[in-house]
């Protein structure tokens, strides 16, 4: 993929040329943005791409120093675009220097090769996001007190780590769309990957825009843990098909996480936000606490969880059918050897009788 030297270079600006050199092209664009910091005329535009915008300084009651918070705005699109470029570069580096080297040792088929690359990239992302999300949650008060999920809404102010986390999350999932082309994903795999990519973009962007970043963090961290376990188990399975214990643990945590997501969502939208004093709809204040928005958000989460459970049940049923078929084939292969048929037993008895008769009439027999 990116940064790979080829003996024969395809025609310039052809599909193969873009696919082979997309990481180098993206690196050039990112370097142009960084070079913009060197000149005073372009510095203010370059900063808009690199650093998070809309900082607000507030004086905290329990702290002598002022605290910097951040809001969201249109300039965040430029920041998301820049870190989308960074995500493409990191994707190519992981593919080139880690996954491709492992693939050469495993000698996987084309189907397993594409799935191994997908799981390798996602496992890396889920691991980093889970660790990052846990570090943010440990510093926030709403982890120990669930009422902080809705008290004081709208939560228009975010800490730097929270806003940067959401910027990187949105950038990563938007970068996954062109990666379908860059990685030459098979046509039959594109719809499946498009489904979950679009769902991530929809839910994470919705939590960011609707000032529900606290709820989004609480729901994302356990979800990323479950997804990390699944893709890590799949990587171990591709290296050795006997290693399937991770899928059992994943199945248990998957169901628990779905129940946790539904419980927290119903608690927040159905009871918490509906009983707060600040009810109303205002784009200027970032307040979306009206019945229509609450029910739309809750319905979207419930439908997504139902769809995920449906896919999970179908996956488990398919897996059980395959295992039962394999066991049935093994039993059929073992049964003829372990249990002789009636014809074989009759034939053996007849041979024994003939042998005894011939031996009885043999003149050389002393009896």
From TrEMBL:
PROSITE patterns assigned to the protein according to its UniProt record, in alphabetical order: TLC
Annotated protein name in UniProt: Translocating chain-associated membrane protein
GO cellular component: endoplasmic reticulum membrane
Membrane topology reported for the UniProt record: Multi-pass membrane protein
Organism lineage: Eukaryota, Metazoa, Chordata, Craniata, Vertebrata
InterPro entries (alphabetical): TLC-dom, Translocation_assoc_membrane
Record-annotated membrane-spanning stretches: 21-39, 80-99, 194-211, 217-237, 249-271, 291-310
Keywords: Membrane, Protein transport, Translocation, Transmembrane, Transmembrane helix, Transport
Top-level taxonomic group: Eukaryota
